[in-house]
Structure formats: structure tokens, C-alpha cells
């Protein structure tokens, strides 16, 4: 999660305590909780998210249980509730939250409909004569002022009763010296109601009844409550749509699966719930079925669609031995698979957890809104009092003008829009990213990615396919009678202990040639350089080293001019040459050159050009040799290349770029590139399909290649643009609206702002912010 608003010191050793917060209505509420709890002893930092109604509290190590209870008690004294978040399965929590949201919407609708039914006739009765509507004589304000007043009172009372939560919550917050949005509504509408009640009582007692009847504000209070309730209902409905991306991810896992009896798979499969599956279960996957678990195919061939997980539209051919992931869709073939990971341990479940954590995080840009919101409500109440007093003291206007100003100012001001501006955009943006195969881990990474001006990229797996193939073997003097297959068998056996893409190419080549398996001992890996060990083939043991030129020089080998020439020819052709050396005793000699080629991704050159058009400087950082790196760079349009780098040297290069004042993004595979990924302002780990284990990255690219990088940067910029729009309208609404509500137009002969219009504008401001954030659901890269 990003750095919270309230922070004393960084405590990275303890996991945060997580709470569900109840009773928050606006940004003033969340800011108040952050301020008060953040100053508690034992609390290192706190982050409260208004949109998700959750809080995370970092504590001093060893004081978790003690602080948890203290936080719950302190939040309760502020008028809110804090309950520890259960570490439930993500789908269970999502279902519960969805049910709560639906229940809340139904409750609001249940109040809203009768409020509207009473508000409409109240508005007609109170304002009809001003609009030229003729009133019956028994209710005419001039002919029957007492009846006129009583009808308005009786139409208002049900609305006030249905909207009583505004008064209960608002006055309670006011008494706790922590006023919130409901406090503004309660004081504003309460003032209008009390003023109207006083006039009604005096009118019924015969004190100028006609004049009293013409100075009632029942409709302002009652219609205002109705409009605010309507706005909150629309806001809640729009906020539910923000969880559509999470819902789509949840729906990828089927509810049931077909389990086979491993002792007799000829028996008909048994349909069971996915929750009951265990590791090791054998399952039948029918054509068109959705994969319920992560597992390995035992029998059958098919094609699997990963589009909803990674955005990759082309189905992948699979067969025995291949891995399947939960959420993917089987093609036309029937498969049996063994469950390797179930429930919370599947990759889909981990993706969902990442998205959920990101949606609950804050971006640094939220600090301004949170800081303003904390002081906003008290400032508005003071502003309303001063504006009303100014009209009362310095003008000859009737008493109704200061009252109108007081009510309009209070109901015009609402910090809800400010509080929702950032978290709603982050919620929708990170959800959309997950749908496009880009997992953004927190709001800080989302914000920072939009500021990247230098992008450092690894070559293999990013600009290239990451699936190199062996193109040839060149024999050298130190082969000692071995042929190509003999050298390849030694290299493949040794590289089986490595996870590098080049190693996989040698292993695959050995399998394709049906080379014998060899035993390996005493393996030593030099990241970014090579690998060595003792390899036994046919009971003959040899010391084998495979790696680049620098690795061989470390072993005291001189590269002759003829060998250097061969290496240069391969490198200029865009191939990666690996040197293989054999040793016996203390002597080690070069035995061969293994040439590997990694095809350039077809989209790399166009994406690099797009990034450069966006003002992003692209730099290639690779452990490959200079000539090969420059050959690939020239083909994709990258001008700046740093080759032959070890993992630590890549991190140093990133550090130097940062020292020059650049915001640096690093794209790598999360293994050799981990130091650079961790050091970069934003680390983007290529997840190789749906592997989300790259912990060093701030962003996980579930689709390899540069298209995913372009999606991440463009989505970040779109989300930050959306946040800035929301903040502009949230602040602009109050900056422009509050002076008008205070009577600025009336000073120059214009009309007074009706409290009903002010309340409607206030309600719609939050709706507009949420609706604008929802536009990110349709984000896509422009072609």
C-alpha cells in the first residue's frame, strides 16, 4: 500500500492490522479517523479508504493485539465502528460486500420513494402560488394561512422522520467536536425547520398569520433532505459498478468441478463444489469448461483461452505435462488434470488479492484532499455563520435572507466529492488494469507510473519473445573428441539447474535430439554470467562451464582472435553466443560455441516508437554482449544500450538515471532483474503468462512484451488525468458555489441561491465524480 496520510515512522517488519470501518459518510470522517488514530501510542501509520470503507494500521512490533483493541475503542469514541477484517477468501468477502451494498441500496430506496411522494406535493403547495397555480380557498395562504401552514408541516414531518439519520449522525458528530457532512445537513435543514416551526406556532396563535405563512422554509428542509438522499442513492449505485472488474475476476472460477476416482477413473466423475477440492485430486475438464484449479494435464490435448486472465486473445495449445491455471477456458478437447493448487493458493486467487489490495490503497495525490477535508467542515460552518451575520448586520434585507444564506452555504458544501475523487479512480483503474493483464499493486505505483520519463527494459522476454532456440553448435579445439550432441548433452544437463530463458533453450534442444540424461554435481551459478558444475555422462565426469566471455575470463581462459571473430559474426547477426568449456584436473579449455537466437516480438518496434512519442526515453539494459544487444536495439528502434551488465550493474545504472533527476521505470523478468526492479521508481515484472510471483515489481505484466508496458503507462496516465479532473470539479464546485450560496449574486442585484438548488448541486457533485471515474472501465489503448 502507498504511504498513508498519517505517518510517524516506517515499520516494515509488521503486517498491518486491517479493519472494516462503519459509519463514514464523507472525507471529513476518514480524515478524522486518520488524524486521531494516527497519533495513538503504538500506531506507526494508518490509511483509511473512504471508497472501500477499510483501514490499515501499522503498529509497533509485538503490540498488535493490544493496539487492535485500542484502535477499535478509539474509533468508537469518534462515532464510527471498527471491526477486524476477517482474512476470508476473496470471493467470500466480495460476495458479502456485494450483499451489504445491495441491502444498503434497498434501504435507501425504501426511504427515498416515500420521501419523494411527500416532497412533490409539499413543493407544489409551498411554491405553487409563486408559479401561478391557483390554490383552493381552504388552503390559500391569504385566505386560510393556518391551514396552509399545517399542511406543509404535516407533509414535512414524514420526510424528516425518514431522513432522521442525518440528524442523529450529524448532531452526534457535532457533539464529539468532529463535524462531518451530516452535521452540515443537520444544522442547515434544522435551522430552516426551527424557523418554520416558530413561524407556524406564532401564526396559529394569531400573530400576523398571513405574514408568517409566507415565510416558511419547510420545503427547503424537506426537499433538501430528499435530494440529498437521492444523490446518495445514485452515488451508492454508481460505486457498485466500480467493482465490476473484481466481479468479473470472481466469476472466472466455476462453482463446481468434476472429480475422478484416482483408483478407477473409468467410473463416472462426481460433481463436487470447488471449495471441497484438495491438492492431488484428479479432475475431468470437458470441452468449453472453465478450469477450477491450478493443475497439470495428465491426459488429453486441447487449446486453452486465457483472454479474461491476461488479455491474450489467442488460445494456447496444451497437452500432457502442461500446466493449467484456474479461470482459463478449455477448448474443444477433453482433459484430465491433477490439482496442484486450490482455493486461496491458485494464481487467480492471488491476482484477486492483489487487485483488492490495490483498490484499497491510496495514491500520494490524495493527501491534498484528505488534508483539506479535515478542516473543511468546521471552516464551512464558520463561513456560514459569518455570511449570515454579514447580511443581518450590514443589510436591510428581511430576516429570511440571512437564514437563506446560512442554510444554502451549509448544504452547498460537501467534502464527499473530494474524498471520493482519488479512491474511486484508483478502484476502477486498477480493476480495468487487471482485465487488461496489468496488475498494479498499489495507488502509489499507479500514480508514479504516470510520471515515468525513462524506461529501462531488459532484452530477453520483453523486446524479444523470451523463447530463444539453439541455432547451431561450433566445435573448438577443447572438445576432446566430443561431437555436437556430446557437447549439447553436457550443456543441457548443467543448464537444467538454471531458470534463465537461454538455459531452457538448451534443455529443449537436448530433448528434441533425445540426448541421454546426465548426472550433475557441485553446481555454481553466477547470475548474469554463467553456470558451472561437474557433469557425469556414461559414468565419465567432466568439469563443465557455460557462459559469456566475462565468465570464461574469470576462469582464466583467453579468447583467441579466431574465436572472437566467430563470436562477433554471431552477435552482429543478432544471435547470443554462449561459450562452453571443459576441464579435467586444473586445466580447462574452450570446447564449443552454442549459438542461440531469440525472435524479436513483432510489436516491439511500434511500441517503442509510441513510448518515444509519449516523451519516454527507452534504454535497453541487458547481460547479453554488446554486438547482439545493439543488433536487437537497432531493429526495435532503441538508441541507448547498456550491455554485458550483471544484476547489480543494472541496479547501478538505474540509480545513476535517478540521480540525474529522472523518474525511472524498469521492466524485467523478476529474477536476474530483481535488484533493478526494486530500486526503480516503478518496477514492472514480466509475469510470463499468469505467474504473479514477481514480488520485486510494483506492477506485474501478465502478458509478456512491450504491449503490456504501454498499457500500464497509458492506463496510469489516464487514471491520473481522471483523478485530476475529479479533484478539479470537487474543489471548483466549492470555490464557485460557496460565494454564490453566500449571496454574492444578490449583492449585485441577482437572485439568492435557493437551498434546494444548493442541496441538489451538492448531491450531484459526488455522483459526477463517481460517474467520471467509471469512464475508466472502458479504457483501451488507442491504435
TrEMBL record:
GO terms for cellular component: endomembrane system; plasma membrane. Belongs to the cation transport ATPase (P-type) (TC 3.A.3) family. Type IB subfamily. Its EC number is 7.2.2.8. One of its GO terms (molecular function) is P-type monovalent copper transporter activity. Residues 15-83 form the HMA domain. It is found in: Cell membrane; Endomembrane system. It is a multi-pass membrane protein. It comes from Desulfovibrio intestinalis. It comes from the Bacteria. The keyword Nucleotide-binding applies. Pfam families: E1-E2_ATPase, HMA, Hydrolase. The lineage of its organism: Bacteria, Pseudomonadati, Thermodesulfobacteriota, Desulfovibrionia, Desulfovibrionales. InterPro entries: ATPase_P-typ_cyto_dom_N, ATPase_P-typ_P_site, ATPase_P-typ_TM_dom_sf, ATPase_P-typ_transduc_dom_A_sf, ATPase_P-type_domA, HAD-like_sf, HAD_sf, Heavy-metal-associated_CS. One of its GO terms (biological process) is copper ion homeostasis. The keyword Transmembrane applies. This is P-type Cu(+) transporter. Its main location: membrane. NCBIfam families: ATPase-IB1_Cu, ATPase-IB_hvy, ATPase_P-type. Signal peptide: none annotated. Keywords: ATP-binding, Cell membrane, Copper, Copper transport, Ion transport, Membrane, Metal-binding, Nucleotide-binding, Translocase, Transmembrane, Transmembrane helix, Transport. The chain crosses the membrane at residues 112-131, 143-163, 184-204, 216-234, 372-393, 399-422, 727-749, 755-774.
Amino acid at each position: 500500500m502507498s504511504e498513508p496520510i498519517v505517518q510517524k515512522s516506517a515499520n516494515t517488519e509488521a503486517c498491518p492490522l486491517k479493519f472494516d470501518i462503519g459509519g463514514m459518510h464523507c472525507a471529513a470522517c476518514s480524515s478524522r479517523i486518520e488524524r486521531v488514530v494516527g497519533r495513538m501510542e503504538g500506531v506507526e501509520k494508518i490509511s483509511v479508504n473512504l471508497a472501500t470503507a477499510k483501514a490499515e494500521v501499522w503498529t509497533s512490533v509485538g503490540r498488535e493485539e493490544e493496539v487492535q483493541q485500542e484502535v477499535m475503542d478509539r474509533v468508537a469514541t469518534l462515532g464510527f465502528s471498527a471491526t477486524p477484517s476477517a482474512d476470508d477468501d476473496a470471493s467470500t468477502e466480495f460476495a458479502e460486500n456485494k450483499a451489504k451494498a445491495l441491502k444498503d441500496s434497498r434501504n435507501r430506496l425504501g426511504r427515498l420513494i416515500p420521501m419523494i411522494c411527500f416532497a412533490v406535493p409539499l413543493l407544489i403547495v409551498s411554491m405553487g402560488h409563486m408559479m401561478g397555480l391557483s390554490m383552493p380557498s381552504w388552503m390559500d395562504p391569504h385566505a386560510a394561512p393556518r391551514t396552509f401552514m399545517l399542511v406543509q408541516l404535516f407533509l414535512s414531518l414524514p420526510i424528516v422522520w425518514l431522513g432522521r439519520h442525518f440528524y442523529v449522525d450529524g448532531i452526534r458528530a457535532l457533539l464529539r467536536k468532529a463535524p462531518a457532512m451530516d452535521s452540515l445537513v443537520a444544522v442547515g435543514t434544522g435551522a430552516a425547520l426551527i424557523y418554520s416551526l416558530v413561524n407556524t406556532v406564532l401564526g396559529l396563535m394569531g400573530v400576523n398569520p398571513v405574514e408568517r405563512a409566507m415565510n416558511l422554509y419547510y420545503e427547503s428542509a424537506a426537499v433538501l433532505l430528499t435530494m440529498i438522499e437521492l444523490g446518495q442513492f445514485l452515488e451508492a449505485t454508481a460505486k457498485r459498478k466500480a467493482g465490476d472488474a473484481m466481479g468479473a475476476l470472481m466469476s472466472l472460477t466455476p462453482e463446481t468441478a468434476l472429480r475422478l476416482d484416482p483408483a478407477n477413473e473409468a467410473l463416472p466423475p462426481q460433481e463436487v463444489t470447488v471449495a471441497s477440492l484438495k491438492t492431488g485430486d484428479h479432475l475431468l475438464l470437458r470441452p468449453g469448461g472453465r478450469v477450477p484449479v491450478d493443475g497439470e494435464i495428465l491426459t488429453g490435448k486441447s487449446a486453452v483461452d486465457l483472454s479474461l486472465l491476461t488479455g491474450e486473445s489467442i488460445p494456447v495449445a496444451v497437452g500432457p505435462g502442461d500446466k493449467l491455471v484456474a479461470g482459463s477456458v478449455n477448448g474443444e478437447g477433453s482433459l484430465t488434470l491433477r490439482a496442484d493448487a486450490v482455493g486461496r493458493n491458485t494464481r487467480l486467487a492471488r491476482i484477486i488479492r492483489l487487485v483488492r489490495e490495490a483498490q484499497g490503497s491510496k495514491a500520494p495525490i490524495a493527501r491534498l484532499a484528505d488534508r483539506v477535508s479535515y478542516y473543511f467542515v468546521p471552516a464551512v460552518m464558520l463561513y456560514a455563520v459569518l455570511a449570515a451575520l454579514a447580511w443581518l448586520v450590514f443589510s436591510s434585507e428581511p430576516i429570511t435572507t440571512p437564514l437563506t444564506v446560512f442554510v444554502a452555504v451549509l448544504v452547498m458544501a460537501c467534502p464527499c466529492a473530494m474524498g471520493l475523487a482519488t479512491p474511486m479512480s484508483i478502484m476502477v483503474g486498477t480493476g480495468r488494469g487487471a482485465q487488461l493483464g496489468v496488475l498494479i499493486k498499489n495507488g502509489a505505483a499507479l500514480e508514479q507510473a504516470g510520471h515515468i520519463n525513462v524506461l529501462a527494459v531488459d532484452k530477453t522476454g520483453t523486446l524479444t519473445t523470451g523463447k530463444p532456440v539453439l541455432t547451431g553448435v561450433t566445435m573448438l579445439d577443447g572438445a576432446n573428441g566430443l561431437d555436437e550432441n556430446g557437447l549439447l548433452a553436457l550443456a543441457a544437463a548443467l543448464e537444467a539447474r538454471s531458470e534463465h530463458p537461454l538455459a531452457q533453450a538448451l534443455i529443449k534442444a537436448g530433448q528434441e535430439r533425445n540426448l541421454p540424461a546426465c548426472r550433475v554435481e557441485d553446481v555454481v551459478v553466477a547470475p548474469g554470467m554463467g553456470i558451472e558444475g561437474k557433469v557425469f555422462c556414461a559414468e565419465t565426469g567432466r568439469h563443465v562451464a557455460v557462459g559469456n566471455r566475462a565468465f570464461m575470463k574469470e576462469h582464466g581462459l583467453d579468447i583467441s582472435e579466431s574465436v572472437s571473430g566467430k563470436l562477433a559474426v554471431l552477435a552482429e547477426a543478432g544471435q547470443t553466443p554462449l561459450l562452453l568449456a571443459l576441464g579435467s584436473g586444473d586445466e580447462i579449455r574452450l570446447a564449443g560455441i552454442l549459438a542461440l537466437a531469440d525472435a524479436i516480438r513483432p510489436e516491439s518496434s511500434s511500441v517503442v516508437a509510441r513510448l518515444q512519442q509519449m516523451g519516454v526515453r527507452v534504454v535497453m539494459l541487458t547481460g547479453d554482449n554488446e554486438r547482439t544487444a545493439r543488433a536487437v536495439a537497432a531493429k526495435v528502434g532503441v538508441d541507448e544500450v547498456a550491455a554485458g551488465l550483471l544484476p547489480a550493474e543494472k541496479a547501478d545504472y538505474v540509480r545513476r538515471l535517478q540521480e540525474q533527476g529522472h523518474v525511472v521505470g524498469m521492466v524485467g523478468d523478476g529474477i536476474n532483474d530483481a535488484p533493478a526492479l526494486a530500486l526503480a521508481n516503478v518496477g514492472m515484472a514480466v509475469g510470463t503468462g499468469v505467474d504473479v510471483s514477481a514480488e520485486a515489481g510494483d506492477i506485474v505484466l501478465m502478458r509478456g512484451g512491450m504491449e503490456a508496458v504501454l498499457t500500464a503507462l497509458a492506463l496510469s496516465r489516464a487514471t491520473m488525468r481522471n483523478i485530476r479532473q475529479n479533484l478539479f470539479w470537487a474543489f471548483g464546485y466549492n470555490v464557485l458555489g460557496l460565494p454564490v450560496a453566500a449571496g454574492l449574486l444578490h449583492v449585485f442585484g441577482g437572485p439568492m441561491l435557493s437551498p434546494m438548488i444548493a442541496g441538489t448541486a451538492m448531491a450531484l457533485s459526488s455522483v459526477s465524480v463517481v460517474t467520471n471515474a467509471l469512464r475508466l472501465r472502458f479504457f483501451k489503448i488507442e491504435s
